[in-house]
Amino acid sequence: MRKLVQSHATEFALLAVIAAICAVLSLTTDSFFSLGNAFDLLNTSSVNIIFAVGLLVVLIAGGIDISFAVGASVVQYVTALILGYIGGGGWMSGLLIAGSLGILLGAFNAFLIHRFRIISIVATIATFNIYFGLLMFFTQGVSIYDLPDWLTDRVVLFEHEMADGTWAEITLPVLVMVICVAATWLFITRTTTGRQLYAFGDNPEGARRFGINIGAMQFIAFGWLGMMAGIAGLIQAHYAQEVVPNALYGRELDVLAAVVLGGARLGGGKGSVLGCVLGVLLIAITQNGLNLLGVSPFAFKMIVGAIILVAITLSNTSIEKLLPFMRGARR
Amino acid sequence: MKRFVIAAVAVSLSLAGAFTALAADSGKVGIVVKIGGIPWFNAMDAGIKEQGKKLGVDAFMVGPTSADPALQVRAIEDLIAQGVKVIGVVPNDAKVLEPVLSKAKEKGIIVITHESPSQKGADWDFELASATGFGEAHAKLLAEKMGGKGEYAVFVGSLTVPLHNAWADAANEYIKKNYPDMKLVGERYGVAEDVDKSRSTALDLISAHPDLKGFLAFGSQGPIGAGRAIEERRKTGEIFVLGPFSPGQGQKLIKSGAISGGFMWNPKQAGEVFVTLADKLMKGEKLKDGDDIEGLGVIHPDVENHNIIVDQLVPINKETVADLAKMGL
């Protein structure tokens, strides 16, 4: 048990902080500890979690990507246009188109980084501007409200009427999110390629001497993020029921902060799917709790910042320092 | 590599050439809006272009990529460097812009603002709706829908947007005075420029306050986000959402009843007024009490605070929404 706690310090620290916040909120508000609220949290965090697990793979491989959120905007827009062109489509074709477009954009990042040896943050800041600039240039910022019905119809997978007459529901974005999370987990922990990504991120030169194909690693990592970003983009268009070219602009930093909070190392080689999901949830729960508590919105940012600091501090301090009795047990 | 360098040099030379050519023009009017690419400011852009053509003024709009005051400052600096005659601004943050607007004025540039009454550093600010008139119109409608009792919440674009907060103040004041049974929950939430945040905040507030019956959302995306939350919670007809929004975007929601209605002014008209005023001021005309100006009607300028405020409200409801949406709003 102790070994498990030690090797997953970040995850346990986050869980502890989340548990503490949840306990406080359950006691101080009537509505936090309810099915409806839990489902709301999942429904509204889905898109960010899909982005986050994609970004996690790139961070593990030692890269960073600033362009994925505007990339997702490009995918949204182009997908909507293609769907209009082929006259409708459906969820399968929609996800296929969005995923492939996303992979293309990710592959372009990987190409720049691998072929020209540009540092990933510089390359993706450039593509961030290129993708967004192209999108604004060609669309003139015009939004698309006329989307196919299958895309904008809400899909409720589970619904339950609560005692007070409100409805708790799980919607399609949650299912897609669960599939993306599971796929990423399988990919990075249960496949050889996934393990090679860790090795490559931790020590690229070592990995190269070991015979790992460096180029392939870059393309796989950025392609995976591209695919996730594409899917997240389509899902955002699904629940927003519109495609607004700058709707996702600025999302990249929120997601990056959450993933790093979840224990992914910016230098590569470290990070877990669980930590990254917890990172997103911690921020979502904090925001949700502040609204439920009726805290003055003027204090929101201050509190979110403080909670991030607490979580980071906890995960960086060894667990034994915080819990002296465990050290006692070792003696 | 060599070829690449040559190409890069060629590109930068031609760009530099293009910029000098632009700067040589005189009497240009540059209008910096909150954020580019959203329907509201696209309509304003259309108004600016049309009126510019009509009056023979070279007027153009600059839309930053996000609603960030720093980006507006940079855009205004660029306009000053280009040597425009008039700068128009729809500020994201009144305070942040003060120094750069003063700098423009020192250079002899005429500064006109919109949606930011009594802006420091501006020659004139014009409003198509008075803060009180606009806030009260929404408050009145909300009170009607809610039957004069119950809890309501207020969204604004950001806690630092002066106008949204002035509307919210006026609306709250009006409700407090005339409908003592209505109760405001949770001060106000600065989420209404972001549809996702408006949606999740509305969902949270509905959970937190079972007696919540209304949302007043001042900010272009606020009513849309809150309306979607109402649909999700199946509270259409029980919780009422009011606020100004883009009719094209909210058409489905208002027809289904998830948004009850709101008022707006016509951003295209605002764009036209920017150019009309710029044209008059460039010609050295003074604005006097009782002047009848195209797009504003008869004005009563407040010279001390350099405000021109008129009430040109357009209601958005089931009947008017289709026509407004057709205008591309």
TrEMBL record, chain A:
Question: Is Transmembrane there in the keyword field?
Answer: yes
Query: What's the main place this protein lives?
Result: membrane
Keywords annotated in UniProt: Cell inner membrane, Cell membrane, Membrane, Sugar transport, Transmembrane, Transmembrane helix, Transport
How does this protein lie in the membrane?
A: Multi-pass membrane protein
UniProt xrefs under Pfam families: BPD_transp_2
**In which compartments does the protein localize?**
Cell membrane
Source domain of life is Bacteria
Keyword Transport present in the record's keywords: the answer is yes
Q: What InterPro entries is this protein classified in?
A: ABC_transp_permease
A molecular function annotated in GO for this UniProt entry is: transmembrane transporter activity
- Which segments cross the bilayer? 12-35, 41-61, 68-86, 92-111, 118-138, 170-189, 210-235, 255-286, 298-319
Q: Which GO terms describe its cellular component?
A: plasma membrane
Protein's UniProt name: Simple sugar transport system permease protein
Automatic annotation (TrEMBL), chain B:
Keyword Thylakoid included in the entry's annotation: no
Every copy of the Protein kinase domain together lies at 126-329
Tell me where on the tree of life, at the top rank, the source sits. Bacteria
Annotated signal sequence range: 1-23
**Xref: CDD domains:** PBP1_LsrB_Quorum_Sensing-like
What GO terms fall under cellular component here?
Answer: outer membrane-bounded periplasmic space
Q: Which UniProt keywords apply?
A: Signal, Sugar transport, Transport
Q: Name one GO molecular function term.
A: protein kinase activity
Does the record bear Signal in its keywords? yes
Query: According to its UniProt record, where is this protein located?
Result: Periplasm
What family does the database annotate?
Belongs to the bacterial solute-binding protein 2 family.
The protein's name is Simple sugar transport system substrate-binding protein
